Fold this sequence. Notes:
Blueprint (H helix, E strand, L loop, with lengths): L2 H19 L3 H27 L5 H24 L2 H47 L1 H33 L5 E5 L6 H8 L12 H9 L4 E9 L3 E8 L2 E7 L2 E6 L4 E4 L8 E3 L8 H12 L2 H4 L2 E6 L5 E6 L3 E7 L6 H11 L6 E3 L7 E3 L2
Amino acid sequence: MSSDEQDTGDDRARDGARSWGRRDPERERRAAERARRIRERRAAERRAGRRGTAGTPADTDDHTAAADHTAADTDDGATDDGATDDGSTDDGAAGTDRAGTAGRGSGRGAAAAVRERTAARAAERSRSRDPRYRRRRLVALLATAAVVLLGVSAAGWWALGEYGPPVATVQVDGTRQIPVRDVEDAAGDQTGVPLAAVDTDGVAARVSAIPGVAAVEVDRSWPDTLVVVVTERTPAAVLDTPDGPKLVDVTGFVYRDAPPDVRLPRLQLPRIAPDDPATLAAVGVLQALPVPVRDQVQTLSLGGGGSTFELGFTEDRRVLWGPWADTGQTVARARVLGPVLQRPGAVYDVSSPSLVTVRQR
Length: 361
């Protein structure tokens, strides 16, 4: 290389160095514009991130589109600059894209959470307005309350049975012919037993086994009294047996010895039992008679052939009742018998209530 060529190369190098060190107003303006756009883009992204739940995906996308457009402008401007400007602009755009992506992700997640909460509240309001939903809630509430009340009642009753007031008195009501002492003995010694713990069913079963008792009710009278109410059998007639006269109640049940001074008609039938049709018809006849007429009846027996009843009255009088199976005529026959007995005679035939006959013998 000649000295002239070397001098020329050195001069060009010096000119290039001097031109690189000089200030270029146009280049400085473009750099300032790029910095301003970057700041505006970042500020917009920060605002979008702060709005979060208030914004919508559409708003976030708009901000993202604006940021992308700005980035495109910046990239275009950077392309016109030298290699050094392109590198710095690409680095800033990459950082900005990462920040925008993070902002868009957080904004969309918050918006989705808001939509889910809004949909849940709307569904709850819709269910609350549905009558079927309200009825189901009411039923569930009532069922829960019932279960709670049952549990509380059971616990309270258990506590009374363990630690409640003891029985101090056994009160017996309703007895007329049955001795009270018999009822107390059958009930058992309940003194000192917690009133809530008394086996009322067991007491009722034992008292019911007493002859002459038709029904028993056992109740508690707080704080310390056990009440036993007895319904006695109503005697309707007397049955002569090898063991002596027995009382027969209105159901045809033979239940106890008849008192010596009892004044009741005597049944003279082949069989006396609650399931015997003739027995039930006989006690039905006696119950249908007016009390003044019934007091005059001494016997009730079967007539000829066993299909009719014959009543023996005081003063050696007889009443031909007619077929005992014809229970539909019982009330009518009982009604006419009273006036007919006022007439003198010995045999009174009321088998046909509309045609009563009276004869002397």
